[in-house]
Amino acid sequence: MKFILTISFLFSLSIFSQDWKQMIDANIYCTPSMSCSSGDGLQLFQLSTIDNPSECEGYGDFTNLSADLEQGAEYPLTVTTGFGDQYLNVWIDFNDDLEFSQDELIVDGFLMSPSVTAGSFTETINVIIAENATLGSHLMRAKTNWSVPVPTDACEETTYGETEDYTVNIVESSLNINEFINEEIKLFPNPTNGSFSLNLINYYDDIDITIRDLRGRLIESKSFKNTNLVQMEFDAVEGVYLIIIKINNNTRVTKLIKN
User: Fold this and answer.
1) What range does the domain containing 245 cover?
2) CA 64 to CA 137: how far, in whole Å?
3) What is the pLDDT of residue 186?
4) Other C-beta atoms within 10 Å of 135: how many?
5) pTM of the predicted model, to two decimals?
């Protein structure tokens, strides 16, 4: 990652209390700019209250646009590009460490309009905010790349594509949360090689567990009855997955990393 200032200096400036616009202007966050002159990149980005039609910027600082996202909630993300075969990653810097890591991806390698050339292509992706997502204001980065997946390094520049930054505010769920949601749920091991267990503390009659990747695709789904310990296995590539737990019409979402 590219840093201009050291972390110790950042703390001395209390930079984390400043808004993202100041951090971008100070070049503390990397601002990778690529070529989008052929239509690569984003021409529309809609998530919750963010509704941003844009032109070709290469790098777009839209941190003045923000949205509140609830813990454990699911949102449609609508994006438009002017050229096909675009891969999309979206990160939220939940821990505010000035880096975008794998476990901070909310969209991972979504492919828009494969094998299509110039035109206007719109896709809607369902994104899920983990139930234990860190509350507060965070930087969100959307990054596209043509023909091949977006690099894992969110600072890396590629020949074609675009980077756009926004602000999101993670807030507590507005749902009527009952005792189940407030109880501690133990997920282990995490990371895993494909086998994991959920300790639900109390016994429940009906439990539905769904595993999805960060593109929203269903990986595995199973139901259990009259138990407090759930054991599951799933076969999938390395990456970050969402474990969606439904009990008594209540939902809890947490992340699981597969090695």
Assistant:
1) 179-258
2) 12
3) 87
4) 12
5) 0.69
